[in-house]
Description:
Layout: E1 19-24, E2 27-32, H1 37-43, E3 69-70, E4 89-91, H2 95-109, H3 126-133, E5 152-153, E6 156-157, E7 171-173, H4 183-192, E8 197-200, E9 207-210, H5 226-230, E10 236-238, H6 239-244, E11 249-254, E12 263-269, E13 272-278, H7 291-295, E14 310-311, E15 320-321, H8 324-342, E16 347-351, H9 357-371, E17 376-378, H10 381-394, E18 412-416, H11 420-423, H12 425-436, E19 440-444, E20 453-454, E21 457-458, E22 461-463, H13 470-483, H14 489-495, H15 498-508, H16 515-522, H17 526-538, E23 542-546, H18 548-551, H19 556-569, E24 580-582, H20 589-594, E25 601-602, E26 606-607, H21 611-621, H22 633-642, E27 647-651, H23 655-658, H24 662-670, E28 674-679, E29 691-694, E30 703-706, E31 711-715, H25 727-737, H26 747-757, H27 766-772, E32 774-776, E33 820-825, E34 850-853, H28 855-860, E35 868-872, E36 877-884, E37 892-896, E38 924-930, H29 936-948
Parallel strand pairs: 1-4, 16-17, 16-27, 18-19, 18-23, 19-22, 23-24, 27-28, 28-29, 33-37, 34-36
Antiparallel strand pairs: 1-2, 3-4, 5-6, 7-10, 8-9, 11-12, 12-13, 14-15, 14-29, 20-21, 25-26, 30-31, 31-32, 33-38, 34-37, 35-36, 35-38
Amino acid sequence: MSLIHEIDYGTPASKSETMVTLTIDGQRISVPEGTSIMRASMEAGIKVPKLCATDMVDAFGSCRLCLVEIEGRNGTPSSCTTPVAANMVVHTQTGRLKDIRRGVMELYISDHPLDCLTCAANGDCELQDMAGAVGLRDMRYGYEGDNHVKARNNGDINLKWMPKDESNPYFTYDPSKCIVCSRCVRACEEVQGTFALTIEGRGFGSRVSPGMHEHFIDSECVSCGACVQACPTATLTEKSVIQIGQPEHSAVTTCAYCGVGCSFKAEMRGEELVRMVPWKDGEANRGHSCVKGRFAYGYSTHKDRILNPMIREKVSDPWREVSWDEAFAHVASEFRRIQYQYGREAIGGITSSRCTNEETYLVQKLIRAGFGNNNVDTCARVCHSPTGYGLGQTFGTSAGTQNFDSVEHSDVVIVIGANPTDGHPVFGSRLKKRLRQGAKLIVIDPRRTDIVRSPHVEASYHLPLKPGTNVAVMTALAHVIVTEGLYDERFIRERCDWSEFEDWAAFVAEPRHSPEQTEIFTGVPAADLRGAARLYAKGGNGAIYYGLGVTEHSQGSTTVIAIANLAMVTGNIGRPGVGVNPLRGQNNVQGSCDMGSFPHELPGYRHISDDATRDIFEKLWGVKLNNEPGLRIPNMLDAAVDGSFKGIYIQGEDILQSDPDTKHVAAGLAAMECVVVQDLFLNETANYAHVFLPGSTFLEKDGTFTNAERRINRVRKVMSPRNGYGDWEVTQKLAQAMGLGWNYSHPSEIMDEIAATTPSFALVSYDYLDKIGSVQWPCNEKTPLGSPIMHVDGFVRGKGKFIRTEYVATDERTGPRFPLLLTTGRILSQYNVGAQTRRTENVAWHAEDRLEIHAHDAEQRGIRDGDWVKLVSRSGDTTLRALITDRVAPGVVYTTFHHPTTQANVITTDFSDWATNCPEYKVTAVQVSPSNGPSEWQLEYDEQARQSRRIAGKLEAAE
């Protein structure tokens, strides 16, 4: 295994379809019109020296190393900024050019430390490489006079020298090694879109500056790593490289955080991970990354990680470490006892949206074939199950319609109930880039998220609706489009059921759905809503992106249907730049749904009651399957409290922290006789577990993830599992202990079984993915290269279906006791329940959950910024510190749920979506009041958690 090297072509590829032929160093070459001479040369295998150029950003032309000579033209133009022309004759290596380049390199080296042997970039330094490429053998200029290299000149303080900035936990900034090529500044602007870096000073005094001469940690830098990746010297260097050294081999794998599914090169020394570098050929991220995927992998070796199986009789007992065989035998014995004593339906399991497709498939197979029931559920249901229902009803398939590249063709983008710059930051950067190019933005969100207004980006409309009124707002948008005749009649007649459209159009045209009427309870100004509707309908290619702010409502499925209606009525389906695009929260939410993690569906979204589908699996698995849907998570917990559900196998989920109504979850778990948790750490759910099976990280196993755009990406093992087994092996050994004759030797065999039983995965195999990189399902004989865009020639269900979307107010109402509405969300540096990111240096940016509250509401309650406040709902109470802000409107408060010390879900209720039971996390009536510190419940919970994490023979708890 060797280090994967990617070619840097110097400038971005041209998208022109017109070809131009020219001659470079005697070679005839044809390239797309608009290609730079530098890129054309690289494509011909001719390397032109460069320092300021890289193909992730636009040409700049400042370093003067890439000069060329062109016959018939005077001077020596830079090859990065000069486009090719027909019949152009270019020379990249002449005596004149060699002299110029050596002179330029001398000037660079004259203000650069010559500590190459001890420099962290030794072996990976473009300045070093270019010195060799131009034949630099000596240097005529010394350090005497002005320089940025030495702290002192002849004993005097050198005011041009700056100390190294090590404030960022992941990388260092050494100004003495900066050549002011501006690559980092341009990467921050063009790739990330944060504009956190600038060049301060002029001439020889120029230097890179984070913000207004701030430290990196105090600036607007979001630590995406684009600047580090762009830097050609050791100026910006990963601390891990400084500590470990340069990597010596690598493998391409997929990030295990959000649903974007970024591809990375895991660069290694032996079995030690040196760094994660975004892979330019990754079709989801195109060489970009965020702080989590790029840097926050330290949890894999954190001291809190549990590496040995553990058992205990009662949850009040300390844990006892056991062998794997004893653990498997104990679980199998307990599950058999429970089923004998309480019945076949008395146990079930939960699959993980963080584990691979193959592992998720095995868990649901174990439950159906081993447990003999369909009591399987997943966290995907508590976030995006309304997407599956709503899009399935209207379009005929349960997933987004586009690839992420599609946004580059969008003219108008609606973002509703999503915060892409925090929750899906790499896609957020791609969206911002398109907005800076001129696309228009409409944001529908109770909170003013960063995307509403950021550098060089401002939404045309921000519709700050009252939480819980999504359906009313979407129907009002449709009202404007229908009553003003802005709909696409041709598309509707060709692609949709016209009679259903007429019925729906009559419904939305009713005066009660007008913006003026809905403004009364949504709070959205009618004029703004009308303007937004007209912009989306007539602004060109219109795309809708939505997140959990749509699905996690009592009318989540209805809102998804309303979004689909809006896309169909305007004809924004079936081509690049349009579509309906759910932004999935976790790395394999889409995959866990695809793999049959719901109690009513087998893999491929086929209902368990379908005889033909069951027959496929019964023949392959050699068992008779139950044709009745099983229990969802809330039903399992209810049944546990009632005494009829006694055992559960939970792989890679922390339902005590992530599911709503924490007290009800705790009561359900406490009522069970055998709770088995398989995870990396003793999470909150493990407080009530009787068996703990240590899990493996994405770095320690092979498999696949399916991202939000239906892209199936390979996960590749780069180190041995520290716990001894991959998660798929743990499930297989548990199945074997229960008498099932499974004998998979590699996850590729599991994928082969998935492909053989699931039509949308029919051509998917590891060999095929290794060959083509990644593929978007459906991937079968009809679409062998996958399906980047869905519903191109027609909907999967035949005709698109318009469905009425009646607004029904949630049962969760404000009143005198609870006058405020709480909504929840995520922050950039943390992920989900924080089990991974809290065990990394990301806590430097978000060490605790805070309650965002408007100044008006805070003043009424005597609350100051940073004060401890008590947050109370009908379900429970917690305390946290206040953050006074105008991001939220009066009457609305907001918090994140990343820290178990807050336990924000003790506040949320058990209200849920009418179609899927997806919890209503986003609307909770609350009261806020000053507090002196943690609530009584929090103190009791912390003590119970501390007691629960005791391990026999260990001096202190594991967390």
